[in-house]
């Protein structure tokens, strides 16, 4: 009886059925992410789906063929858990972009390693049947894309963690895109040679893994900090697609479906982020915008010679307290200063005085999609107060004071008014339409795009210089004292 | 049908399903979406599990142990951090809205 049950659990049919249950649960779980109320349950559902897939795989007949297998699998899982659990528990919300970059990278790395082992198997058998061309094409795709993702994510992590400088590092002139294209051609060319029947492990390691590794580095090094949301999304898509390719090579439906969901998600996010910056993905990958100082054209839009009006925390407190509606527009500067909790305190103090407070969230504010939302959620700001750009823009004309905290380019009216501006056409938060604007800034340095911001010189704008967190706390104290 | 054709059909359909589902995720949840998809692409751990019993020699074993470890980091870390993050997304607390009423009439039920 028990033996019969064990045999049944090991049948291909049972395992395939489990895989279908697994990807069903994952898709259903992702559907939960369409709203904050259902999201926690959705994530847990997807996790159950993943557990089903892993257990079904371990039940497979012949899974533990060979005495060392069980131990090797155990070692891998223990190491992964020992690294993954503390990382997930302890990471600060301000460090989430780095964390996501790292997770993208290890996924891509796993795909590349699996492809390597698969290649060695094909190599040792030496034969070319039906299966091997399938394995070849999809594993080689996985190897190239996975390797790009692993090394590219490493560079993105280094930039976000500030181990590497955030500014673009690139070859002069048009050399960078030409080199990248050449590397891609070499990698694809090597793949074609291997598929055509040349067995050479050296060619696989050098022509595929190594060239793709260099390409991964070369793709991300020229990209500046402000373009990071696009790059992280793109690497996310790469890892997903490479996982799906491995799924086809191994003819494993749950890997195909899960990989494609991630591929679709990454692609959608990449597209949305690029649209929110009014830039094309190829232009961003070619690099050289975020952080490169584009010489501002001196002309009608020039702010040279204009003066800014600076203000004090006490004055800001009075302005805010007597407002009916205040909108807070946060940017990467809020994340750097870790000011989210202080901002929440200010919001509470103002609400106690009867002021309505809302948050205006630009899609590319911060270093990854949704970065500001997570930080403010961490500070207990109810998500109803977090308004998306299209939702909040019509409200600015009804807003008494807009408080810009560490945001610059996403509020720059030049994007609307000055056709000569490098960011012209980028959708922005139209903070200049509110009755008064207060900008919290560390100094008069320009934003990451290196573009002057006419908002600062607007007569209704006043600037409060200093560390965002300290400034906000000071304003809060003044508000409470009123 | 050839199994490769079936696999590619699954690939294409899954792509469309992915687009349909993910398009509906609001901007607010984009960071949890990214860390959640980090966990989902941890599915590559299955590749390591499937190949381990066929591993020949120490090099392949090391490569696959690393692959399994990487996949496990994705799965365990991804789901945990997403859960932690989503737990922070709170709605407006109900009692705040009800407070003025409570103050005037403590007997009034919810």
Overview of the structural elements:
The complex is a heterodimer of chains A (482) and B (110). With 482 residues, chain A is α/β, with parallel strands linked by helices. Chain A is 60% helix and 6% strand. Chain A has 18 helices and six strands. Chain A has a six-stranded parallel sheet. In chain A, helix 17 links the parallel strand 4 and strand 5. About 3% of the residues of chain A have low confidence. Chain B is flat. With 110 residues, chain B is mainly alpha-helical. Chains A and B meet through helix 2, helix 3, helix 4, helix 5 and helix 9 of A and helix 1, helix 2, helix 3 and helix 4 of B.
- Total helical segments of chain A: 18
Secondary structure tally, helices of chain B: 5
Radius of gyration of chain B: 23 Å
Overall 3D shape of chain A: globular
Number of distinct beta strands of chain A:
6
The averaged pLDDT of chain A comes out at: 87
- Number of E-state strands of chain B: 0
The dominant shape of chain B is flat
Q: What's the N-to-C terminus distance of chain A?
A: 79 Å
Beta fraction of the residues of chain A? 5-15%
List the helices and strands of chain A in order.
HHHHHHHHHHHHEHHEHEHEHEEH
- Main β sheet profile of chain A: 6 strands, parallel
| Biggest pleated-sheet summary of chain B | none
Largest interface: A-B, 111 and 81 residues
What distance separates the N and C termini of chain B?
61 Å
Tell me roughly what share of residues is in helical segments of chain B: over 70%
The structure class of chain B reads mainly alpha
The low-pLDDT segments of chain B are: 96-110
H-E string of chain B: HHHHH
Helicity level of chain A = 55-70%
